[in-house]
Amino acid sequence: MNLALIAMILALLIPMYEAWQDENIWQKMLAFSSVATKTSIMILVVSVLRDDWMLGVTGVIILSVGNAGLMLLAQVLKRMNQL
């Protein structure tokens, strides 16, 4: 279990490193979206292993709603740069 979580955390750092190198706002938003998705998957794995359904519900909410808010923020930033 610990090895799988460590591998998931290492996979979580890959998009952050790529976004750190690039100045494009869309690349950064995509990296944050990827981090949100991977974090919610990690929460779901932990909730299944612990048999804790409240954590599972939280992971599902983050997975379904978290990326939508991030993409909305990206659209706002895009519109502000066009003005």
Automatic annotation (TrEMBL):
Q: Which UniProt keywords apply?
A: Membrane, Transmembrane, Transmembrane helix
List the transmembrane segments.
53-77
**Where does the source fall among the domains of life?**
Bacteria
UniProt protein name: Multisubunit sodium/proton antiporter, MrpF subunit
Organism whose genome encodes this protein: Allocoleopsis franciscana PCC 7113
